[in-house]
UniProtKB/TrEMBL annotation:
PANTHER family: UPF0213 PROTEIN YHBQ. It comes from Maribacter polysiphoniae. Belongs to the UPF0213 family. PROSITE patterns: GIY_YIG (PS50164). This is GIY-YIG nuclease family protein.
Length: 107
């Protein structure tokens, strides 16, 4: 099984970019070289990789990436600068039958 990674980049203007990939080095290089002119990071280079987390399950990686994209830049920086308990984030129930499930809460 191929691992997937959720990563956070710190852009030169202080903004953060969150993404998912199966090859962090390749993806970082693509961002740094500006290979995609429409990418968020294109005009914000140079960039710095400040966080990466490996996942064996792509569904779990996608869930984590979507969760991080809703976070503020400050919270992402706090995650990158650790310590941060990823187990807490990853263990949150996403089952619609669970009593804590409330899709309106994330909006």
């Amino acid at each position: 099984m191929k691992p997937y990674y959720v990563y956070i980049l710190l852009c030169s203007d202080g903004l953060t970019y969150t993404g998912i990939t199966n090859d962090v080095a390749r993806r970082y290089h693509e961002h740094q070289m500006g290979l995609n002119r429409t990418c968020f990071t294109f005009k914000r280079r140079p960039i710095e990789l400040i966080f990466e987390q490996e996942f064996n399950d792509v569904v779990q990686a996608i869930y984590f990436e979507k969760k991080l994209k809703k976070w503020s830049g400050k919270k992402k920086l706090a995650l990158a600068n650790g310590p941060f308990d990823l187990r807490q984030i990853l263990s949150e129930c996403r089952n619609a039958t669970h009593s804590d499930y409330n899709p309106e809460k994330d909006n």
